[in-house]
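Service request form, structural biology core

Requester: graduate student, group of Dr. S.
Request type: structure prediction, single chain
Budget code: on file
Notes: please return the result as structure tokens.

Sequence provided:
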Amino acid sequence: MKIAVAAYPPEWHASWDALATKLDTWVAQAKGQGADLAVFPEYAGAEAALIGTPGADPGPIVWRNAMAARADDWNALHSDLAQRHQITLLAGSIAQNGPQGITNSATLCLPNGTTGTQAKIIPTPYERDEMQITGGDHLQLFDTPLGKIGVLICYDSEFPLLARSQIAAGADMILVPSCTEFPAGQTRVRQSARARAIEGQCLIVQAPLVGQVPGCDVVSANTGRAGLFCPPDYGLPSDGIIAQGDTDAPGWIIVDVDPAQIAQARKTGQVGNYADWPLQDGIATTLTRL
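Core staff response, request fulfilled:
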């Protein structure tokens, strides 16, 4: 399959129609190059609240509420794009209302109109303290015609047991939409994504937010580098990098990938990280001090 991974620059728009036109153009470009799956970043949904002109920044809570108020419209727009362009589409995450409170959630939209949502399980300190974002309470695995897809939003990728749960349940790939302000944050997410690919012997896809947005503290500055990662093993890239874009360069990287070939490393690879994971269990819970 072909996977399109966005390094996506959010921006202000004069109207909702202008935003919809931008996204339609992006999705059409991905589909026009043969993409079966397109992945947008974390907090790309901030654009749903960036209608008008920049002014004095009202603060993170106001932006959270503004996103939540447009979340249904945002997700409906992406579902329509997925159906019209006949592509599987991970909408950029957005603050949205849920049973447990306002979460940071991303919706996977299928060409047949089916949708499903994954909330970020572990909000960052900024999200918890400044935005008062609530963490999700369960992981999803989306069974699609392209395979079983898991989603770990940004910081969630830094916690191995979350990825392990999805991979043990049969995930063929894990999508990591990300939003990081500084190079250190981008490094943490990128290196974590690569580590998850090694541990799970699985395809990991990272889509970052890039660029600057005046007047919006939540996405004021963003840095990242799109990438697709795999375990370095027989028949796969020796550095574990299938493809990557340039840092902070907006646009798609579109790559032909076979998740089954990547997962074959679990059976015939040089090492057996996936199969050997349980060997940690008895040792990791016991510690002797000298």
